[in-house]
Design brief:
- It is a single chain.
- By secondary structure, this protein is α/β, with parallel strands linked by helices.
- About 40% of the residues lie in helices and about 10% in strands.
- It is globular and about 60 Å long.
Length: about 200
C-alpha cells in the first residue's frame, strides 16, 4: 500500500511533465490488486500508511534527512474487481486466497489471535462517508475470493452514505471465468464497459 501511495505522489509531482490532471486520480485493481487499490483508496490521510521517503540513491547522511514527497496520495475513486475487503469474514476453503494458512503468512500472526492486524489490513475498517466513490464487480460463483467480500464492502459503503456501485456477475468464477468461453468473454467485456463508464462519469463531476 505504501508503494501504491508513493507512486501516486510521484505521478502528481511529475504532473506537468506527463500531462496528468493531478486533481483526478483513480485506481483500478483486481483480486490482490483490488485489495491494494481498495486499501489505498480508503486510507486517505491515515498516517500509518504514509510512504517512507525513497532513499535508495542517497548517501547515508542525506538519507537520514529525506522526507516523503509532499503531494497527496488521496484518490478520487476506484474500480475494484473481486477484491478482498474484510479479512475477518473467513470461511474460505483450503487453498484459496483467504484460508487460515495464507492469512497467517500475510499478517505474520494467527488471525484468530491478532484481530487488530486483521482489522488494520481490511479496507472495510476505514470506510466513512467521505470515502471516494467505488465500483465493485464480483462473480457470484467466485471460488478464490468469496462474493461475500464485495457484498460486505458495498453494504458498509451504503451504511455510511458513501457512493458505491455494486455489480454482481451471475455464475462467474474468479477473473470472470464462466461456464463457456463465450460467457467469459461476455462477462469480461461487461466489466470493462462498466468500469470505463464509471471512470467517465467521475471525470465529469
Amino acid at each position: 500500500v505504501q508503494d501504491v501511495k508513493a507512486a501516486i505522489r510521484f505521478l502528481r509531482s511529475q504532473a506537468g511533465a506527463y500531462g496528468i490532471d493531478s486533481s483526478r486520480v483513480y485506481l483500478w485493481g483486481g483480486s490482490a490488486g483490488g485489495h491494494l487499490a481498495g486499501l489505498t483508496t480508503v486510507t486517505c490521510g491515515v498516517a500509518a500508511f504514509d510512504p517512507p521517503p525513497s532513499t535508495g540513491r542517497l548517501p547515508g547522511s542525506a538519507a537520514k534527512l529525506a522526507k516523503p514527497l509532499p503531494q497527496s496520495d488521496c484518490v478520487q475513486g476506484a474500480a475494484l474487481w473481486y477484491g478482498v475487503f474484510d479479512f475477518a469474514l473467513g470461511g474460505e476453503r483450503p487453498g484459496t486466497a483467504l484460508n487460515a494458512k495464507t492469512l497467517t503468512g500475510l499478517l505474520s500472526c494467527d488471525p484468530a489471535a491478532c484481530r487488530d492486524r486483521v482489522a488494520a489490513a481490511s479496507p472495510v475498517s476505514y470506510v466513512k462517508r467521505e470515502t471516494p466513490p467505488l465500483l465493485l464487480i464480483h462473480g457470484t460463483a467466485d471460488e478464490e475470493v468469496s462474493f461475500r467480500q464485495s457484498e460486505a464492502m458495498a453494504a458498509r459503503m451504503r451504511a455510511v452514505g458513501a457512493s458505491v456501485e455494486f455489480v454482481p456477475v451471475a455464475g462467474a468464477n474468479h477473473g470472470f471465468v464462466d461456464a463457456t468461453p463465450e460467457a467469459t468473454k461476455r462477462d469480461s467485456l461487461m466489466a470493462l464497459d462498466r468500469t470505463f463508464a464509471f471512470f467517465d462519469k467521475l471525470s465529469k463531476r
